[in-house]
Amino acid sequence: MKDFSLLVELNNAHGPSGREDEVRQILSGVLNPIVDDISFDGLGSLIARFNRHATGPKVAVVAHMDEVGFLIREIRNDGLLKLFKLGGIDPKVAVNSEIEVKTRCGNKFTGLIWTDKPLAELSIDDLWLDVGACSREEVITMGIQIGDSAVFATRHFELNNSGVMIGKAMDDRIGCWVGVELLRSLDKQSLACDLYFVATVQEEVGTKGGKTAIEQLNPDIVIVLDVATAKHLEVKSGAQRLFGQGPCLVVADKMALGHYSLLNYVSDVANEFGIGVQRDFLAGGGTDNGPATLVGSGIAGLAIILPVRNCHSAYTQVNPNDAISCVKLLSHVVTQLDERQTAHLYSYC
């Protein structure tokens, strides 16, 4: 069984969009002994180079560091706080949640979200964050300022010894874990490709790091790791994105089409090594693959997502077998990526 202790640490870190410092520090510490060098783009995305002496294609495996969360938008005279939403959080999901507020100085406070409006009518403006203060002055004395960040306060845990893992930030700390485990699995292997793991920022607020980091790197191939809500159907239904049935290769989403030759190559590798995968469509959203594939003259890119439950909530669930299968798949995919295979991907004649 894989060691998920790193995932626990990543999940418990405070890292909403634009405030990914804790996550970046964890990843930097883990990757430093593994990779050749680490650099950053102007927004703070982490770019770890694994195989700098390679003469083959430049391959980027990408996952985003940020989680959904909030910013403190207003401090009321009665001590209650109003929130600005970072990412797609349903207000009905946020009600009654325990929240962790982080100040500029790094101090953390617990808050509770409540509302006096009917759930059916909720908007973000109807939510109140209570940190136990009775006045604006008490809030300010705590060190909380407008612009400070807040995330769900859930600590990572396992669901009744089932192996199913739960955390507030599986989107996309599980992708970050997969990226690190991929590099660890390749430690003693010979690679033709110049491999990078890229941990991007601000994906939840418009896939910002997916543009800036890939523009800085300008790879030949991009593979983006992310998650999406699983479908509650039986396997025999023929539906895609079933929980525990393996990683999903995204044929198309709202922002990008999976590069068809790359999609088929990854599918063929999965079949060759007996790794179960699903083909999927994300009609309502996108990933960092959208901006990444539009860099330069265009880059062959593919998103691989893990099916999760309760996405963008305090309790997102991941099946460990899906994550482990994703690491195995990526290991075989990048091991076989060389100049010949890359040239085949870009053969348009």
From TrEMBL:
InterPro entries: Peptidase_M42, Peptidase_M42_aminopept, Peptidase_M42_dom2. The keyword Translocase does not apply. It comes from the Bacteria. Keywords: Aminopeptidase, Hydrolase, Metal-binding, Protease. Belongs to the peptidase M42 family. This is Peptidase.
